[in-house]
Automatic annotation (TrEMBL):
This is Cytochrome aa3 subunit 2. It comes from Ancylobacter defluvii. InterPro entries: CcO_II, CcO_II-like_C, Copper_CuA, Cupredoxin, CuRO_CcO_Caa3_II, Cyt_c-like_dom, Cyt_c-like_dom_sf, Cyt_c_oxidase_su2. It catalyses: 4 Fe(II)-[cytochrome c] + O2 + 8 H(+)(in) = 4 Fe(III)-[cytochrome c] + 2 H2O + 4 H(+)(out). GO terms for biological process: ATP synthesis coupled electron transport. Residues 217-307 form the Cytochrome c domain. The lineage of its organism: Bacteria, Pseudomonadati, Pseudomonadota, Alphaproteobacteria, Hyphomicrobiales. SUPFAM superfamilies: Cupredoxins (SSF49503), Cytochrome c (SSF46626). GO terms for molecular function: copper ion binding; cytochrome-c oxidase activity; heme binding; oxidoreductase activity. Keywords: Copper, Electron transport, Heme, Iron, Membrane, Metal-binding, Respiratory chain, Transmembrane, Transmembrane helix, Transport.
Amino acid sequence: MLLGACSGPQSALDPAGREASEVALLFWVMLVGAAIIWLVVIGAAMFGGKWQKQPLSERAGLRIVLYGGAVIPTIVLAALLVFGLRLMPMLRAGEPELRITMSGEQYWWRVTYAAPDGSKVESANELRLPAGRAAEITLDSVDVIHSFWIPSLAGKMDMIPGRTNRLVLHPERTGIYRGVCAEFCGRSHAFMAFPVVVMEPAAFEAWLAREAAPALSKADNGAFLANGCGGCHTVRGTQATGSIGPDLTHFADRQSIGAGILPNTPDNRRRFIAETETLKPGVRMPSFGALPPAELGAIAAYLGSLE
Ligand code: CUA
């Protein structure tokens, strides 16, 4: 059980980026430092209690208090402070090569990429990053305080309404990691997660170009529009232009649905539409379980065609 947290897609001790490597290093330095201090203190206590027969002279006692209680702790704590300060991200400069805005909403993530031509590309509930490049994530919130945390890539940072926070990530290893909301934000706080896909830079460029394009689906979106889905969701290139909920333009390309809670499969797409409020208590989208099965199936099929 203890070692279960040491690896996997959501472990701060199995870093896949520069910032997370520094967090892991700080953890190990602190752990080893604390272990040494613990051994010395326990050793001294045992020595004093069991083996020291003669009382110490006043001079020797004072020296132990002075060195053990003031000089050594000052040196050790100052060294750890300098080491920790050096790792603070805001003390380092550097131009990011990619700018992304992530906005927390109850209980999902609005993700906006700045495309190379200066235009904005909106997506949701999944973050894609190129390996080996610096990405600046601008963090904010529209409702309550959320917190953005990808343990494999960096430390956490709060998303606060009315305030903009900035986090620079340097992912180094390709793979799929897991990001979570790390601040209690309501009933579905635990269901507010997102996959993080770190790709080769060329694959990322190709993906971003595809993501920027309007939906290519030729599937029938009659049921989707007739039931009002387009009032809250955008599918670029169609009549669906709502902006209250997540953008669904290239929905079928995403790893998960419902902000990281279910794998993006045909069964789960149907289930999420029918049981939204059961799967995500407190979410603003109502459950559409009362729709005739054919309508439900048609909406789920349309979403599955949005590549
Ligand atoms: Cu958002 Cu917890």
